[in-house]
Specification:
Layout (H helix, E strand, L loop, with lengths): L1 H7 L4 H29 L3 H4 L3 H23 L3 H14 L9
Helix pairs in contact: 2-4, 4-5
Length: 100
């Protein structure tokens, strides 16, 4: 765990525990929200067949990103999760969104 703390720039085990809790809550919340979100958009398994799961994951990905920063803020870890999001989005090719 000390290597992970060092890599992420975390000082305490308590902060690491909070970060793990935020990841867990965010993953559960995004999975829970995916069903009503797809229903709202009119996306059903009967319409898409095997494509339903990939389409659902693709649509839920932005929700997960927003929830991660929001829940991180609620738990007092906004700085960590905002840096985490920026790094991930830059690696995905969205570097143009962030001026440095």
């Amino acid at each position: 765990m000390s290597d992970l703390k060092k890599r992420w720039g975390i000082e305490t085990n308590f902060q690491l525990t909070i970060i793990f809790i935020v990841f867990a809550i965010t993953g559960s919340a995004s999975a829970w929200l995916s069903k009503p979100f797809c229903f709202w958009l009119g996306i059903t398994k009967s319409d898409l067949g095997y494509w339903f799961t990939p389409v659902r994951l693709f649509l839920i990905f932005p929700i997960y990103q927003v929830l991660l920063v929001l829940i991180g803020f609620i738990f007092g870890q906004f700085k960590f999760f905002w840096a985490f999001e920026k790094k991930m989005l830059k690696r995905m090719g969205f570097r143009f969104l962030f001026k440095e």
